[in-house]
Write a structure and sequence with these properties.
By secondary structure, this protein is of the alpha/beta class. Helix content is 29%, strand content 18%. It has 22 helices and 27 strands. The strands form six sheets. Strands 21-22-23-24-27-26-25 form a seven-stranded mixed barrel, surrounded by four helices. Helix 6 packs parallel to helix 7 and helix 10 (302-312) packs parallel to helix 13. It is globular and about 70 Å long.
Length: 644
Amino acid sequence: MGYTIAQKIIKDHLVVGDLTPGSEIALKIDQTLTQDATGTMAYLQFEAMGIERVKTELSVAYIDHNTLQAGFENADDHRYIQTVAKKHGIRFSRPGNGICHQVHLERFSRPGKTLVGSDSHTPTAGGIGMLAMGAGGLDVAVAMGGGAYYLTMPKMIRINLTGKLPDFVGAKDVILAVLKKLTVKGGVGAIIEYGGEGVKSLSVPQRATITNMGAELGATTSIFPSDEVTLKFLKAQDRAEDFIELSADSDAKYDAEYTLDLTTLVPLAACPHSPDNVKTVSELSGLAINQVCIGSCTNSSMQDLLAVAEILKGKTIHPDVSLSVSPGSKQVYTMLAECGALADLISAGARILECACGPCIGMGFSPQSAGVSLRTFNRNFLARSGTADANVYLVSPETAAASALTGVFTNPTKLGVAPKLELPEQYLINDNMIEMPAQDGKEAKQVCVQRGPNIKPIPVGKPIDRDLKTTIALKVGDDITTDHIMPAGTKVLPYRSNVPKLSEFCFTVCDKEFPERAKRLGDSVIIGGVNYGQGSSREHAALVPSYLGVKAVVAKSFARIHIANLINFGIVPMTFVNETDYDKFAEGDGIEIVDFANAVRTKEKVTLGNTTTGQTAELKLNFTKRQRDILLVGGLLNYTKNNA
């Protein structure tokens, strides 16, 4: 039997396990990336391991999230990351150089290599044929130290693309069509692999848009072949030597296969408040809008923004609309300026933001109260934009630009003749905003790592107690995201390196009283529904509850990255054997698991008792031996120290 693209890369990097789906495997990691919202904690964790130099082929620290410097906190974190990167062998992408995934695609991603990043949209690099996975910062720190990356061997899902995209239909519409079919839970436990003749019609930036939003499917990652289109892109980036051809074997077996005819696609939109709540733009036609945001790691490439500039050229945006444009990288920004497209955007009334995540992470440009915002981003979770009652829709750059001109949802196919765009034969290469680290040895030892007063020590987990006897601090429903658990935005992100302060915001989207209640209880558990912890890879959604005394989360099911983060920080994730038992528990109920430590050590099932009502429920403890050992000692940091 032949191998899929992903299986080939996994086989070449496998250090523990085999290719049996559902079994635990460990991979050698070639590259890592961090961004500043997660990076400070990742590097604090790396320092705590006592390793002098990163052991990967390449590690890059990007500054792209917390760039709004309303106080000293973000600037201090940036200086810390800059100095710790210089000392330990990590390249540093300075503020203004661009969004991590766009820059990494342009300058560092390599087909056939492995990449883990402390950002859930790291699979963007799958557009170039890389096995790229989002992970918690602690997992990334371990990989930087030379440790393997552990995960469950995924199933393989193939999506065969046929035909060619019609005019005014983009890669965003492709992934929205996939989300509509598979939902935000459809990729859980799987790698999504794209193939078929239609792949050849998609550029690398278009492929990267699709793999970027594979994160919204819950997939481990998504990947495209590395072919002549990939080679053309790498040549244009002056990186032809990084190319290898990579495709699935003709007799490769998949757990599921789907076919998507690109010629049948129309402009689509994800409606509030989920990326899989998809309708056609025609269905929404005429709905008044207030704001349009173009950019993010999903749609900020040269190809995307040239299309927007062509649509807006010589026109003026509607007076009821505020339009922002965030170029994905300095390379894109500079080339837009040199070809005149930037002037077209500015002339039309666009507000040009810096090369950063910006509004996508709730860092400025929040919509008006009860506003309707069209965004070319990847997530439209409730309150993520910074405005609690805003209605956010996810659309393609073409739909965003057309709607910005009219002030209502507008199908871009109504604009007439589509702009004919040619990707550059040669991109502008200037890596002057990427700092190289100090040389190993004496030079590195002379680097002084700078820490601001907002950087606090890492909370360390405690070993599991023999019995679990505590209280339910919170009960939540299905599809709770990491944005619900640990919000982002301008008020919260500056405290990512200050867990005690950050804890004041934990779960406040769901219940403003939760932080104080959790502190008052001392220790507690949380009850959740289906797909608990979907969304961002932010480990703070596990680290902060751990700091607040949460000992376990009992849910109907968990998202992949979040369950790993819970284990990493010593919180025991358990699932109901019978999902209807969820109804037996309420906030404030007392709960008990007798001989809890032994259950974590050896059992596959355990009984959860409700000491308030007398009811019971059976829970699954689906852990590997390694995960059990991590939980017993209070988390991965303790485990790593003990086994160094």
